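Field log, afternoon session.

UNIT: design team B
ACTIVITY: writing a sequence onto a fixed backbone
BACKBONE:
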C-alpha cells in the first residue's frame, strides 16, 4: 500500500483546504492539506493520488498545470490556494 493511500484513506472526503507553495524561482516546495505539510515528492504523490495529475517540479501559482489541479480539487469541494515563498 502506498503512503498516500494510507494518509488519504477515507480522508479525502473530509479535506477542506489544499495550499501549494513554490519558491520565487518556481520550484515546488510543499503542499499543505488542512495544515499538514507534505514536502516535494511526497506532496506530488498525494496530488497524483487525489486527482490523477502531476505537480511539476518547477511551476508558478498561475501556471496552467497548477490552475488545472486547483480546478480539479475545487470540483471535489476542496478550497485551494497557491503561494510563492521567499526562501532567502
Amino acid at each position: 500500500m502506498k503512503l498516500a493511500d494510507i494518509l488519504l484513506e477515507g480522508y479525502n472526503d473530509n479535506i477542506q483546504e489544499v495550499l501549494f507553495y513554490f519558491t520565487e524561482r518556481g520550484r515546488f516546495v510543499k503542499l499543505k492539506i488542512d495544515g499538514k505539510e507534505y514536502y516535494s515528492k511526497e506532496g506530488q504523490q498525494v496530488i497524483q493520488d487525489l486527482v490523477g495529475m502531476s505537480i511539476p517540479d518547477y511551476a508558478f501559482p498561475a501556471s496552467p498545470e497548477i490552475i488545472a489541479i486547483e480546478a480539479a480539487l475545487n470540483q471535489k469541494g476542496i478550497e485551494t490556494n497557491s503561494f510563492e515563498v521567499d526562501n532567502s
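LOG NOTE: The longest helix spans residues 40-51.
NEXT ACTIVITY: expression trials, pending approval
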